[in-house]
Amino acid sequence: MAGLIIGLSGRRGVGKSRVADHLVDRHGFRRIHPFQGGKAACVGYLTHVGATPDEAARMVNGDLKDVPCPLLPENQTPRYFMERFGQFMGVQMGPDWTIGQEIRLALERDPDARLIAESIVYEVDVIRRMGGVIVEITRDGSTLTGLETDKATALIRPDLRLKNNGDSLVRLRGEVDRLLERVMDHLEPDPEPEPC
Hints:
This protein is an alpha/beta fold. The protein has 8 helices and 5 strands, in the order βαβααααβαβαβα. Strands 2-3-1-4-5 form a 5-stranded parallel β-sheet, sandwiched between helices. α2 packs across α3. The protein starts with a strand and ends in a 9-residue tail after the last helix. About 30% of the residues are buried. The mean pLDDT is about 90.
């Protein structure tokens, strides 16, 4: 199972992080994020416009993401800024600048790495081109919020799906174990037909 790449898609709150956690904890995957470089750039920008390094980190990765920020035009939230910056990087510049770079960096460190990327939005083609599989996590009751990334997520056609019933973490872990077997089956090349 060397060099395996899985990209997780799905709406907010469907359990992508829990699935990724289990793949990391139980199956030796390394977590990568399509917007990790963009997040680093966002921390730099927010620090540049007046946030302390701690505040900027919380705005990008923590509890201040959705809090209106007086340092941003029109008191916008950091998430608003990151959504638009992420769209610029992932769409205008292209996903080779986002997930492509994260995969390159990870595989340079460990060519046999198993990589899990959650929150795939604009990066599907790059992951598939690099031999990866797109898995959509679904859950009853999840809804779109109207953000641009949610609209783009709804258009993704996954290779495989996993339904998270949300009733048991133990059950979800078992489903993820079975999902990994399905991923391996999906990646196996079709056997060559026997010569006549």
